[in-house]
Amino acid sequence: MTWADNVKPIALFVLISLTAVVRCQPASAAQTEVLTVAGGCFWCVEADFESVRGVKEVVSGYTGGTVENPTYKDVTRGGTGHYEAVEIRFDPAKVSRAKLLDLFFRSVDPTDPGGQFCDRGNSYRTAIFVSDQQEKALAEQAKAEAQRALGQKIVTPILDKGPFYTAEDYHQDYYKGSTLVFTRFGPKRQAQAYKAYREACRRDARVRQLWGSDAPFVGS
Fold first, then answer.
1. What is the model's pLDDT at position 191?
2. 33 has which bridge partners?
3. Which residue has the higher pLDDT, 78 or 18?
4. What average pLDDT does range 139-164 have in this prediction?
5. Taking the mean position of all CA atoms in its chain, how far away is CA 15?
6. C-alpha to C-alpha distances, 183 to 77, 100, 116, 168, nearest whole angstrom
7. 3-state SS assignment for residue 35
8. Are the C-beta atoms of 103 and 128 separated by less than 8 Å?
9. Other residues' Cβ atoms within 10 Å of the Cβ of residue 169
10. Beta-carbon count within 10 A of 46 CB
11. Is the predicted pLDDT of residue 2 greater than 70, yes or no?
């Protein structure tokens, strides 16, 4: 038996062992990308997009301004430059950024420069925040397509993304919370308070008026 004859079985054993190890390794975590948008009340935007297949999580927060670590009162009082916004964290293998942008435009009133629905003021305006030229190009394409479809001027700006500050814990997943809160509608669980607010603000009514059957989240 030659030296080569001895090496071949050893090499084959090593190859089989390495293959087994690779097969036993856990699959790498699915890729996550982030789309940051402002669409008025972040409770509503969070509720809308957490229903989309491929979206892993939506986080409410503040961005676009100059004040570090703002509170909800700071932002709604004005003067911070911040928008109520969300980070939509998604799996691009399941849903594309372009699709999410199309859904975003059809879930808001992008013709309103002064806020959204019953919520008025700079912090409630719509916006898209981008990190690079590729994201900007996709946002501009979605905006142009939405404007053609709507037949009205869209005022939603496309802005450079800056620091995103996560909102207070009680704002996260507000739309499905069970905590008892006191509202102008009386004491209600968060989920009930959210539904009452959304209806009273006429968000769905205005979106339906604008987009008709293209409105993806009416009644969320």
1. 96
2. 90
3. 78
4. 98
5. 45
6. 19, 32, 20, 18
7. strand
8. no
9. 7
10. 26
11. no
Place of tokens 């509202």: 183
Cα–Cα distance measured from residue 209 to residue 173, given in angstroms and rounded to the nearest whole number: 27
The full DSSP string for 62-131 is: EESSS-SS--HHHHHHS-S-PEEEEEEEE-TTTS-HHHHHHHHHTTS-TT-SSEETTEESGGG-EEEEES
d(CA 112, CA 116): 7
Sort 11 into a burial class: Cβ within 10 Å, 0-12 / 13-18 / 19+: exposed
Mean pLDDT of 33-42: 98
**Contact indicator for 38, 84 with CB cutoff of 8 Å:** yes
- What letter does residue 219 receive in the DSSP assignment? T
Segment 64-94, tens digit of pLDDT: 999 999 999 999 999 999 999 999 999 999 9
Q: Long-range contact list for 131-138, CB < 8 A, 24+ apart?
A: 131/160, 131/161, 135/97, 138/97, 138/98, 138/101
pLDDT for the residue numbered 29: 54
A 10 A CB-CB count for 163 gives: 13
Q: Which residues pair with 174 in a beta bridge?
A: none
Selecting among 24, 41, 118, 201, the annotated active-site residue is 41
Active site residue 41: yes
